[in-house]
Amino acid sequence: MILLWGIVLTSGLGLGVAFVAIWQTVSRRMAPTDFWPELHRLGRGLLTEGDDLPRLMALYRQLAINVLRYNLANLLGVGLAILPLIAAMTWAAPLALDQWHERAATMLVHPPGAPVEPTPGQRQAWCADTLTCLGYEMLWFSTARREAGPTAIARPDTQDGNPLWPYVSDLEFGFYLSFLLANGIALGVSRGYRRKP
Question: With DSSP H G I counted as helix, E B as strand and the rest as coil, what are the percentages for the chain, rounded to 5?
Answer without folding.
Answer: 65, 10, 30
